[in-house]
Amino acid sequence: MGLLGGSGAGKSMILRCIAGIETPSKGRIVLNGRVLFDSQQKINIPSRDRRIGLLVQNYALFPNMTVAENIAFGLPKGLSKLAIKQQVQAQLLAVQLEGLGDRYPHQLSGGQQQRVALARALASQPEVLLLDEPFSALDTHLRSQLEQQMVTTLASYQGITLFVTHNMEEAYRVCPNLLVMEQGKAIQYGTKQDIFERPATVSVAQLTGCKNFSKAVVKASQEVEAIDWGCRLRVIEPIPKQLSFVGIRAHQLIFTSDSSQENTFPCWLVRTSETPHRMTLFIKLHSSPSNPNDFHLQAEVFKEKWAIMKDQPLPWYVRLDSLRLILME
Fold this sequence. Notes:
- By secondary structure, this protein is of the alpha+beta class.
- The protein has two domains: 198 residues, P-loop containing nucleotide triphosphate hydrolases (Rossmann fold, 3-Layer(aba) Sandwich); 117 residues, no CATH class.
- 26% of the residues lie in helices and 30% in strands.
- Helix 2 runs parallel beside helix 4 and helix 3 packs across helix 4.
């Protein structure tokens, strides 16, 4: 499960409390029926006895220990030398670092250090594995490689994994389920598809990358008015009782030559922003803009589409597909 939220939402603090690194002022922490912490009953199981694996951003490897010794540190106490050697070899194999057991952390790349830290965390056969932004210290290419490798490694792990990130695409790729946090509170929980397709609030929609919002009021059983966009929209999803906003994702706006379709409006291009593969188009509905910040919506299109669009005369027509509209409380 992914814990998704902005900076300061409380994601890392939750992991630190579960691991026993931080002591909450009050509350309970229960893992598989075992009480780890209870402020009222004065229960606070020490970190080392919680059967929890923790992987932090900087990996926290012991610099004076070899890779094999770092991994062995995570093993249960009382094992024979032969059992320790076998377990270490098995962990090195699992994270594709066989043959590197005699090296020290400073002799490894950042990606290799991360894999040693994961092997150490898994060596103790924890009931829960806590991953605190494990890819944040790596460059983009390495992140992608290690992310795939970690998903493969964790496929055979029998316990629970909690994965903290503020990168919504990373959360979507790695985690089947998401818990969205804001200011220390859980504000939405569900499958990743539910969270991204039906964010309950504006803040959840923003965290999942939605850029277009308007205050909204109900006009009929299947019609809302988008106040900030100056238009009425037909909707298909049931309208929430406390409807406050309507939203739509930038890549789901549809440019069309058929102005007779529902939820289709004339629009003018205000300005553009470029990434290697896409163009973001800032557009104004109903009339031409008066300045570069006079826009209603952001649309994202691939550059191939932009090459066709850019020379067409204004106004263009944009459709806000009723199936793609997000209705939020």
